[in-house]
């Protein structure tokens, strides 16, 4: 039923919708359409600036949603109790995607982390830096690292964002420099 109400709402059909606003002590306001399960589909504001949009349960984003900072999108994807979990994207303050892939709650249950398969991009330029496996914000497992010009730098195994295990290192011209086993060393010196 909620899906039907939302489809009618966005298609422009006239209906009476249960609109509501919730105000919190910290100055945040959630405003939108209240659904039968008491969740609200709408927007969250703080000091008259949008800070989130989507479905809210007990004041937290749940399901598909977006977070904003100073009017710019900060992240979007699937939320569970206000944290990104599952597929999503993070953006830089310049509007570039800086990560797209899967997220998980950090082990200390505070915030979200890049975890699983994903792609990380340069914060300012948006150029692809790495694609592969992540483990709580670290490059861990199999992946590929790229030079700023897009040329493959390294393909192989990573441990805590360092080249570790079997891999191939290439120079900026794409020529193979080394093929073999790497120990945990700061080989990724100029990211």
Q: Can you walk through the features of this model?
A:
By secondary structure, the protein is mainly β. The chain has two domains: 1-81, Histone H3 K4-specific methyltransferase SET7/9 N-terminal domain; 83-191, Histone H3 K4-specific methyltransferase SET7/9 N-terminal domain (Single Sheet), CATH 2.20.110. Helices cover 5% and strands 61% of the residues. It has one helix and 14 strands, in the order H-E-E-E-E-E-E-E-E-E-E-E-E-E-E. The chain has one helix spanning 2-11, and strands spanning 19-23, 28-34, 40-46, 49-57, 60-69, 72-80, 83-91, 97-105, 112-121, 128-135, 138-146, 152-159, 162-170, 176-182. Strands 1-2-3-4-5-6-7-8-9-10-11-12-13-14 form a 14-stranded antiparallel β-sheet, with no helix packed on it. Strand 6 (72-80) and strand 7 form a beta hairpin. The termini are far apart. Mean pLDDT is 87; it is low at 1-10.
Biggest sheet, strands in spatial order? 1-2-3-4-5-6-7-8-9-10-11-12-13-14
Tally of strands: 14
Helicity level: under 10%
**Shape descriptor:** elongated
Mean pLDDT level = 87
Note the beta-strand portion: over 45%
Structural class: mainly beta
Main β-sheet description = 14 strands, antiparallel
CATH architecture of the largest domain: Single Sheet
Low-confidence residue ranges = 1-10
Radius of gyration: 21 Å
CATH class of the largest domain: Mainly Beta
The span between the termini is 50 Å
- SSE succession: HEEEEEEEEEEEEEE
CATH topology of the largest domain: Histone H3 K4-specific methyltransferase SET7/9 N-terminal domain
Number of domains: 2
Tally of contiguous helical segments: 1
